[in-house]
Design goal:
Elements (H helix, E strand, L loop, with lengths): L1 E7 L2 H12 L4 E8 L2 E8 L10 H20 L5 H11 L22 H7 L2 E6 L6 H14 L4 E5 L7 H12 L3 E3 L7 H6 L5 E5 L8 H14 L4 E5 L4 H13 L4 E5 L8 H7 L5 E6 L9 E2 L2 H8 L2 H4 L9 H13 L3 H10 L1
Amino acid sequence: MRLKTYFAPTLQEAMDHVRRELGGEAIIISSTQEKAGVRVTAALEHQSTEKPSTSEVISKDALLSHVTRCLAFHGVPSPLSERILRHAETSAATSLDEAPQVWSAFFQDENTLSDRFAEEGGVILLTGTPGAGKSVCVAKLAVEALLADRRVQIITLDEGKAGALEQLSAYASHLKVDVCSFSHPKEMVPLLKARQKDDLVLIDTPGINPFSKKDLAFIAECVFVTQCVPHWVFPAGCDVWEALDMAESFKDLGVREIIHTKGDVAKRQGALLSVLAQETFQLVAFSQGPTLAHRLVDAKADTLHDLLKSEFFVQLPSAQVTAVASTKQVEKKKETREPVWLARLREAKG
């Protein structure tokens, strides 16, 4: 597969470069508006009049085509798309069956959450935006810890949200685990000092605005008091650029690990890939489903691949996942066309 990036003052000029060099079969990976112009990244499968010398060549092209369409569908921006495709080209993976290896670069640390539960206790603090699924994740983490024969204590600081304590208490009652509610981080200190080494303490925090200094200061104090590494509960369906802005705020809080939620109710995961590509965060678990029956899944290359190879894009014809720029051109043409209702009004007035 041939991958090239074009830069031009306008989108039309960039598209002209693509068609001139790669032809009409090129797949547009991304188009980005910059101050000086537009950057377009395009890919083209290798075409040759000669028959491939081995079946491996055919399989490799099929793999790269699959990855290219996957990136386009999920809205992964350039230069991340380029980086992943280059990794795919040089990886040992040679067929679609080995596609999970393409995503292995995101999983250098194999020390997953379930591994840690089997080895030690500790303090896990969850933070994130409102509605991300923090309380459910706390309950699911408690399930995993109990299955690993760890004693569990749940703390909630989310007293301001209506029904938050009741929701968490309902989960905890099913697990026969106590829930302690505090309004200020410093109130947790006696309980944290009293815990035994192998105990696991799970802390549910209020949903925050990652762009609010007041909210960030509250979580920062929680981190200082607990001396733990906070976990970002990251819901699927976020806008890529909003997610990257949020990542800067969470990074400043000391967040290094992500629990991904709601992947079962969102089609596109470009925001998750973009955040992971910052090389600051480690994806440690997936939480799919709102009930405790849906257990946490360890984050590994094959589980991410299963999420990315969604049925939503596998069946799409190539025309539906190609030129972002072409789509914008079509939309522009539609805007200049006279609306049907206006044409009929003119006829009626006749």
